[in-house]
Design a protein that fits this description.
- This protein is mostly helical and 313 residues long.
- It contains four helices and six strands.
- It has a six-stranded parallel β-sheet with strand order 1-2-3-4-5-6.
- The termini are far apart.
């Protein structure tokens, strides 16, 4: 046990330790635990093998002591050096006689006691006797006098935190009363300010409603103007269509006129070509006749020459 205590201290001094867990360290008696642990509030010695509480130190600030699953049968008077003890767990030990529990009546702050799995619990009217023996006791073996189950450790912690918060709030209220000599005047001022805020909110709400109505009217006017614009656009489109039809008719007339002019030019060109061809043919005929006429005397002279040659021969 002494070696385990040294390990659990982790280099801290005895008066700095507030919680010490020595479960399963195996020892039949208290060893290495002294009165120097003045700040210790929680001590756990579960399944250590203790036979007696002899040499148990005086721990003035101890509040919770776990001694379950040992072989303790007596010696509870050694716990009187811990007057602030509120939780004591002795379940799974060897306490047989009710008289062995008599020293617990001096623990005026004891609220929770667990003796489950001890032979003493088989004594008739055991619960009623213990509640009479220890007036401060609230829960025995996990239940109160009316057999209502005790809250868990987490619930206890939550209740303690709520109690601390309520204490802080009550302190704040008391300080407010001390510092505010004219509390009623402050409340009246606050009411006037609150009414001003309410009036301002109503004005803002009315303005918002007016703005919403104006927005709705603008939306309706916009819809009407859009309808008129669409009508105008439709009329413009119809006018444009008529103009397009007229333009198409005029274009068709112009195209017909141009095609007719083109045909006339073609015909004139063809007639001119035919006349020039005729003139060329006529001139060609005249030239042929002239050549024929010019070649006739030559032919005649040649003929005469042939005839003279024949006569000379």
């Amino acid at each position: 046990m002494e070696k385990r205590i040294l390990l659990e201290k982790r280099g801290r001094s005895d008066d700095e330790i507030t919680e010490l867990i020595l479960d399963n360290c195996r020892s039949t008696y208290i060893d290495g635990l002294t009165d120097s642990f003045t700040a210790l509030e929680t001590l756990s010695l579960i399944n250590v093998g203790l036979v007696s509480l002899k040499n148990f130190p005086k721990l003035s600030n101890l509040r919770k002591l776990e001694l379950s699953d040992n072989r303790i049968s007596n010696g509870l008077s050694h716990l009187m050096g811990s007057p602030k003890l509120t939780h004591l767990n002795l379940s799974g030990n060897r306490i047989k006689e009710f008289d062995e529990l008599q020293p617990l009546k001096d623990l005026e702050n004891l609220e929770v006691l667990d003796l489950f799995n001890n032979q003493v619990t088989l004594i008739e009217n055991y619960r009623e006797k213990l509640f009479q023996l220890i007036p401060s006791l609230n829960y025995l073996d996990g239940f109160d006098k009316e057999y209502v189950e005790a809250p868990s450790d987490e619930e206890d912690m939550a209740e303690e935190e709520e109690a601390d918060d309520s204490c802080e709030e009550s302190d704040d209220v008391s300080l407010a009363y001390l510092y505010n000599d004219n509390l009623e005047e402050d409340q009246e001022d606050w009411k006037s300010v609150e009414s001003d805020y309410n009036n301002a909110d109503e004005e803002f709400d009315s303005e918002d409603e007016e703005e919403e109505e104006g927005a709705d009217n603008d939306a309706e006017d916009g819809a009407d103007s859009d309808g008129e614009g669409e009508d105008e656009d439709g009329e413009e489109e119809e006018d444009g269509a008529d103009e397009d039809d007229g333009g198409n008719e005029e274009g068709g007339a112009e195209a017909a006129a141009s095609s007719a002019a083109t045909e006339a030019d073609t015909k004139a060109t063809e007639s001119a070509k035919s006349s020039s061809t005729a003139e060329e043919a006529a001139s060609a005929g005249d030239e042929g006749e002239a050549v024929t006429k010019a070649s006739e005397p030559e032919a005649r002279g040649t003929k005469r020459k042939f005839q003279g040659t024949d006569s000379d021969g």
